[in-house]
Amino acid sequence: MKRSSFKKLKLRQLSETTRGKTLIPVEKIGKRLKDIREALGMTQKQMAKRLKVSQPVISRIEENIGSSRLNTILKVARAMDCDFMGAIASRAPLETMIKKQAEKAAKRVLSRTFANMAMEKQAPDDKAYQYRLKRLTGELAADPGPELWEE
Question: Is the pTM of this model over 0.85?
Answer without folding.
Answer: no
